[in-house]
Structure formats: C-alpha cells, structure tokens
Design goal:
It contains eleven helices and twelve strands. Belongs to the bacterial solute-binding protein 2 family.
C-alpha cells in the first residue's frame, strides 16, 4: 500500500485519519489542526457501485455501509447497483440531482461513466473514484483502488521463490477476462516476475470469467492439456472455487496454487493447509471503507491526519499482500464471503 507494508494499513491508516478521538498534542505548523479529527458538519455521501453479483463486489458494498455507520455525521445514500452502464449512469445522475455532498463511484465501466463523473465534478460535487478508473483525471478528485500489476508481480515472486531451486519448473495461469485491463495488468505483473527465475516457464494460460462455473470449466481444460506442472496462479478466489472442484474431480495434486483477492473460503483452505491452495494475493475490498473516510474528509474540508497539508491525496493505491500459512491469522479477519 501507498502508506504501509500490509493491505490492512490503508483501512487502519484512514480510519485513524478521521477518527473521533481528540488529539492529545498541539499540531505542528504543517499538520492538519486537531479539530479535523473531531466530528464535523453532517455529510451526505452518495455511493454508486456495480451489482453485487460477486463475492468481492458484495464485500465492497458491505465495507462502505459498515464504515459509514461508524460516523454520526455521515449519511450514506447508496444506489441499488447495476452492471448496466446506462442504468448506473442514471443512478449517479439521480445522486447529482439530490445534491449529495460527495460521490463515491465504483463504475461498472470506467470509460463509460467518465462523462457522468465529469458532470458531478462540474456541479461542484467531488468524486472519489473507486478501483475502476475513469478515462479522465478531471472526472474525479481522488482515486483509490488496488494494484493489479502488483498483484500479479507478487504472485509471480511468491511462486518463483518456492520453485527457484527446481530445474525446468512449469507454471500455468487461470486469468480473468482478457477484455478487462485489470486482467492484462495482473498477467503482465506475473510474467515480469517470472523473468527473474530463468528455471521457470509458463506453459499454459486460460481466461475465465470470475465465476465459479467458468473457473471449473477452464481449469478442467488446463488439467487435460497439462499432464504435470508445478504451480498455478489463479486471478480470482471466486473462480478459484470452481478451479478447486476441477482439481479434486481430476484427482490432481503435486503442485501449489496461489489465488487472488482474499476470499474467506480461500483463507480457510490456506489455514487448513490440506490441499493445493497455499496462498492468496490480496485485492482488499476495505478500499471501500477507506473511500468513505476520504469522502467524509472531503465533505468536511479536512485533510488526512499524518500527511502535511489541508487536502486529501489525489491517489491511494493499496498493497497486494501475499497471505499464506505464515501470516494467515493476521489477515483472516479481512476474508470476505
């Protein structure tokens, strides 16, 4: 993460930033005044996300709701959510017409919703762009999201270290949809990491759709095509449920699997340590809670405690920590269903 070495750092850091605890010392000249940490004027935050038809997306909504409830001075106006871009644009326009103080938007399609982000900004409503980025930086005041390249990079480095002493090691990849830029970034990060391990070769790749069914079907194809391999990098823990089903049905083992995102089911399997799944690389949905923190600070004209200046950052990138049996107890509470 931008502000720490663990994914939990962003949530903890930004929670502290807008905590209701009074400051215990006078601030230095270049620090935000102590009053910034006290309850402030009421703020209405409009929250527009995509349809929660995936474990990670549902966790995004739950993190936003839970964080808003911790603030007596925040009202969260949340839309139903839609994967239809026209419907989501309409929902955002409704929030604009309601004259909410700040907007938090996780667009189903960043490019398609850029214009409505610009509309909000021009109407004087600052926008926190969550995860899927708009096409223009003029469409948002702050972007906060995960590190897709770093996710692939850390997965590749983890696998590389596990296999660095194995001659002619083979790895395979079960990606997300190739139409998504995030998938391309995760694959590039993974491939770049493997360049540091000349003994390792990626021998196969299949693109799934972030669903259990697609994970099972595409993993079955990989298993049929590859009689043996040493490691599997799976981009998404939801589709990983299907991948593990295919692996069990085929009776395959003898390799290590690294997942992605940080679902509770994956973390439980890692803790049990009785199967091929040995690690997952976080893409933490706590970013939504941090987006609420930032939106509240914007609505109350506050900066972020711990940073000089009177403004929130323009960008916050969460770190993609690797969770395995050595640190599972630290991250297990963050696992999402």
């Amino acid at each position: 993460m931008l502000f720490g070495t663990a994914a939990i750092g962003a949530g903890a850091f930004l929670t502290a930033c807008t905590s209701n605890e009074p400051a215990k010392k006078e601030p230095a000249a270049n620090e935000q005044p102590a009053s910034a940490d006290k309850p402030g004027k009421p703020v209405t935050i409009g929250f527009a996300g995509p349809q929660a038809d995936h474990g990670w997306l549902n966790a995004i909504n739950e993190n936003a709701k839970s964080r808003a409830e911790t603030y007596s001075d925040v009202t969260l106006d949340i839309t139903e959510g839609s994967n239809d871009t026209a419907a989501q644009i309409g929902q955002v326009e409704t929030l604009i017409n309601k004259k909410v103080d700040v907007l938090v938007i996780l667009p189903a399609d960043g490019k398609a919703l850029t214009q409505v982000g610009l509309k909000a900004m021009r109407a004087g409503i600052p926008v926190i762009n969550l995860d899927r980025i708009f096409a223009s930086p003029q469409a948002y005041r702050c972007w906060i999201g995960g590190d897709n390249y770093g996710m692939g990079l850390n997965a590749g480095n983890y696998i590389g270290e596990k296999l660095k002493d194995k001659p002619d090691a083979k790895v395979i990849e079960l990606s997300g949809p190739d139409s998504l830029e995030l998938t391309q970034q995760r694959t590039k990060g993974f491939d770049d990491a493997l360049k540091n391990y000349p003994n390792i070769k990626k021998v196969a790749r299949q693109a799934a759709d972030f669903t259990v069914e697609s994970g099972q079907a595409k993993m079955a194809q990989l298993l049929q095509a590859q009689s043996s391999f040493d490691a599997l990098w799976n981009h998404d823990d939801d589709q990983g449920v299907g991948a593990l089903r295919a692996i069990d049905q085929a009776g395959r083992d003898g390799f290590l699997m690294v997942g992605g995102a940080g679902a509770k089911a994956a973390m439980d399997a890692i803790k049990a340590d009785n199967g091929v799944l040995k690690a997952t690389v976080l893409y933490p949905p706590i970013m939504a809670a941090s987006a609420i923190d930032l939106a509240r600070a914007l609505g109350q004209s506050k900066g972020v405690s711990g940073l000089s200046g009177l403004e929130i950052p323009a960008q916050v990138t969460l770190f993609s920590a690797v969770v395995d049996k050595t640190n599972i107890d630290d991250y297990l509470p963050q696992g999402f269903s």
